[in-house]
Amino acid sequence: MLRPDGRASARKSFVFLVVGMVIFFLGSFSSADVPHMISYQGKLTTASGGCLNDTVQMTFTIYSDDQGISDEWTETQTEVVVKEGIFNVLLGSVDTIPTAVFDGNVKYLGVQVESDPEMRPLKPMVSVAYAYRAGTADGGGGGGGWVDDGTVVRLEDSTDQVGIGTSNPRPGYKLHLKDDAGVYLLFDHSRDTTWILGSSVAGNQSFYIGQENPFGGMSRLRIMTNGDTYLCPATGKVGIGSTGTPREKLDVAGDNDYRPATVALTNPLGIIEAGEVLGHVRFYGADGGNQIGAEIRSSAVEEWTPGSSAADLRFLTTPPGSATPVDRVTISDDGNVGIGTTTPNASAKLHVAGTDWYAGYFTSSFLSDTTHVIHSEYTGSGSGFSPVAVYGKSRPADNRGFGGCFEGGVYGVVGMVAPTGSNMYYGVRGDVRGGSGTNWGVLGYASGGGYNVGVFYSGGLEGTGTKSCVVKTSQGPTLLYCQESPENWFEDFGEGQLANGRVHIELDALFLETVTIDGTNPMKVFIQLEGDCNGVYVSKGTTSFDVIEFKGGTSNVPFSYRVVAKRKGFENKRLDYTPAGENDPYLYPEATERLEKEREKGQIE
Predict the structure, then answer these.
(1) Are 455 and 445 spatial neighbours (Cβ–Cβ below 8 Å)?
(2) Nearest of 330, 321, 326 to residue 301 by alpha carbon
(3) Which of 194, 196, 440, 505 could cross-link to 187 by cystine, CB 3.0-4.6 Å?
(4) Which helix (H) or strand (E) holds 90?
(5) What predicted TM-score, i.e. pTM, was given to this entire model?
């Protein structure tokens, strides 16, 4: 019969013929956005048996029973085209069919056309629809079997296991692959970069393994864990971090400037005792043996407790003719470095212990007046103490050893002081104390084919002992002593002879350049007659003097003279005070004990 609008009105008396149902599995091998649907075809006729040609509204319902009491899914398609009685629809195209609908039990399909009652009897959905669920996998291992959720195929029961090549998967493992030939898992793909294994925690990417082929056919394995990439190329090199192509057998890169590359070696022991080795880096030969060429090792120097984990770091190498590494360099827990010793001096940042000619050997090829092959500098400040920048000590036995030995092209030793105050300062200080032998504070020695000077000084020469000259005599080396004077005089000697009772003497011109002779600083002239006469007197000038016989005598006797004049530039020097002798034991023997105590306390040099 026809509706008032001219469209056919379907009745229960219509013949309804199910032509077929086909499931389309649209999951991970197609588009994840397309739901699972069932292709359904039928035929509608009028009450008189004629084929319907119209567009009608149809409602489809899936029931779990043949009476239509318990429905599990339903949808209405408003415009179903019927031509020559035949219609085709996709069940699930309006409302997705839940996977749980097909649970292994028989389901029934109800069909309603327009407002007519739902057709009876209900049509059972035959086995072809159950391709919607992989029934052949159900029941494995006693669990629920495989379930297809549309975009995911999974095991229905969380206790289910999968065994490939074995019917008895190992307990506790979700997947157990076994192959007696040794090939457990093979991934075959055509993309250059494909993640082929992965896991996640709480939905976050945490572990992926993939294969790359980005460099002209070179295959490599790539593992990504939270952004870190590990590369194992066919070259046998391993890169950790974003290293691109590894440059060495192991190439470790940090994330950025704030997280540099870090390698951790962890001792698994629960309690770390003093002396416990925390970790090694060892260098072996290529023969596969256990001989070690070198080693880097760290050990605890105390029992570790929360907040206290002191350790040292040692570098070892194996000497020739041995297979056992020997300690070479040690960095102690306080940061001191020992070379040739495992116990660096606690007060020294660098402690070098040698067993051959040189404990240390330093060279430089930089040509400059400011080149210091070894530079030692005290950088602190303060008064009351005198730190030593360089200290040398060599005392193998009494009368043996040099505290320092220096060889230069101009100066063997240069002592310099840059005073900023008004204290006493010493460019070079020599100090010998004790014993019962002969002590020299400073010994200077010069020899050669030219002009030799053992000691040269610029400035004054002061001392509380004697100034002596050593000469060779029949008694052996003998001392001759200098005359001392309260003023600074230069003197000259000469000879002359009276002619008719007088003579004029001109002083040596070079001598006159060294002295001052004027009205304030007259010369002193001493005459020694060498013949009989009335006696003589002297008439002095500034560059010469006259010798005249008394009483108008006319003698012609010879004589010798001595002329003394003030040294130029030192005319006013007389009995000056010097602070250098304040604590000198020669002048003040009672001060010797006090000075020794102060030296022991480090208050003076």
Answers:
(1) no
(2) 330
(3) 196
(4) strand 86-91
(5) 0.56
